[in-house]
Write a structure and sequence with these properties.
The chain has 127 residues and is α+β, with helices and mostly antiparallel strands. The chain has three helices and five strands, in the order ββββαβαα. α1 links the parallel β4 and β5.
């Protein structure tokens, strides 16, 4: 399930669900077209689903169409400190930690998200 941003500088969100609707992974990020920045705000994969590539699939989906942006993150958990450098090697993005929001991101009020739309299963994203 993808919820697009409603304003430039605002949030996007991706949720992965099992066929019975269990929400097992979620990625929240912001993009700004003026600064050409993508900021990963939060990435979470439930324990049983970790180490199966869902995190990197979500990230590749998030970066689709924004490959030339500078990609950064907020504070990184111990897992994130392993995840983002590894992802950086395959995507070429830096994922600089503890990055500040740009002024346009700061100016967006609330966490408004667009209408959710269902997307193909993550296995299809790599094609
Ligand atoms: Zn900006």
């Amino acid at each position: 399930m993808y919820r697009p941003q409603v304003t430039d500088g605002g949030y996007h969100q991706l949720q992965l669900q099992t066929s019975d609707g269990y929400d097992f992974a979620r990625l929240t990020w912001l993009t700004c077209s003026r600064c050409r920045i993508g900021l990963v705000a939060k990435i979470r994969v439930t324990d049983l689903w970790q180490r199966q590539g869902y995190g990197s699939r979500m990230m590749r989906r998030a970066m689709r169409g924004y490959e030339t942006y500078t990609w950064v993150t907020t504070g990184q958990s111990p897992q994130g400190k392993q995840f983002f450098p590894a992802l950086g090697e395959t995507t070429g993005a830096a994922f600089t930690p503890s990055a500040p929001r740009c002024p346009h991101m700061k100016a967006v009020r609330g966490a408004g998200l667009g209408t959710p739309r269902t997307e193909p299963a993550p296995n299809d994203l790599t094609r």
